[in-house]
């Protein structure tokens, strides 16, 4: 899974360096807490990009379900951080793919646990071809998440993905097993309207996403998995 901050280059261009550092530290600290809470592995951060993985180095049958929970938590936690330019809550783009990888410790002076392979590239493409405030999933991630989890997805249809061609992709909307509050690990705010928190999570997100389809069904809603 990859995530980045929407409009980050504009924030860097328009902000004081110390404000950018404070922003990244604040949001990554919140992401780190989710990583620990859900027992996934943080691979690296580069600029505003944050990479995590489930099922590595130890295999887990529910790795994709767990990564989906972390992604949902990231969307919510990002909103508690303010854009230093506009003062508005931050939005992140998140991309998820599931597949085989090659992993190992690389380097001597500063060894790092690295992941390689087409699956890593595909996850990165899901993030870069996604939209702010949404979790963009490949078909493989969509299918894998169904094995152990119950999620509601919006089918985006087929889109042209750089270096991959046409791919059928999905937006993850909510979990049917866990509330947002359970995922984030906080008490439900009595001021919110919904019980599970997903109404608030999806509030303000543009529903009319530009969708490119080739022989795709007319309906965007997928069955609850």
Automatic annotation (TrEMBL):
Q: Which Pfam families match?
A: Guanylate_cyc
Q: Which reaction does it catalyse?
A: GTP = 3',5'-cyclic GMP + diphosphate
Show the GO cellular component annotation of the record: cytoplasm; plasma membrane
Record's InterPro entries? A/G_cyclase, Cyclic_nucleotide_synthase, Nucleotide_cyclase
Q: What class of enzyme is it?
A: lyase
Domain (Guanylate cyclase): residue spans on this chain: 1-127
Record's Gene3D superfamilies?
Answer: Nucleotide cyclase (3.30.70.1230)
Keyword presence, Nuclease: no
Kindly provide the name given to this protein in its UniProt entry: guanylate cyclase
């Amino acid at each position: 899974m990859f995530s980045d901050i929407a409009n980050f280059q504009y924030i860097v261009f328009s902000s004081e360096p110390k404000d950018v550092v404070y922003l990244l530290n604040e949001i990554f600290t919140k992401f780190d807490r989710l990583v620990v809470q859900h027992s996934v592995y943080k691979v690296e951060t580069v600029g505003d990009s944050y990479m995590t993985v489930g099922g590595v180095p130890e295999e887990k049958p529910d790795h994709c379900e767990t990564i989906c929970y972390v992604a949902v938590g990231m969307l919510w936690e990002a909103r508690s951080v303010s854009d230093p330019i506009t003062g508005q809550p931050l939005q992140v783009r998140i991309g998820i793919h599931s597949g085989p990888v090659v992993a190992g410790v690389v380097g001597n002076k500063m060894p790092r646990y690295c992941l390689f392979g087409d699956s890593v590239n595909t996850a990165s493409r899901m993030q870069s071809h996604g939209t702010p405030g949404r979790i963009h999933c490949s078909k493989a991630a969509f299918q894998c998440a169904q094995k152990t989890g119950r999620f509601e997805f919006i089918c985006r249809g087929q889109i042209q993905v750089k270096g991959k061609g046409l791919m059928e992709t999905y937006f993850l909307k909510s979990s049917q097993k866990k509330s947002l509050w359970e995922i984030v690990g906080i008490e439900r705010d009595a001021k919110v309207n919904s019980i599970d928190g997903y109404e608030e999570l999806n509030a303000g997100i543009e529903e009319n996403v530009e969708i490119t389809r080739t022989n795709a069904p007319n309906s965007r809603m997928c069955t609850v998995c």
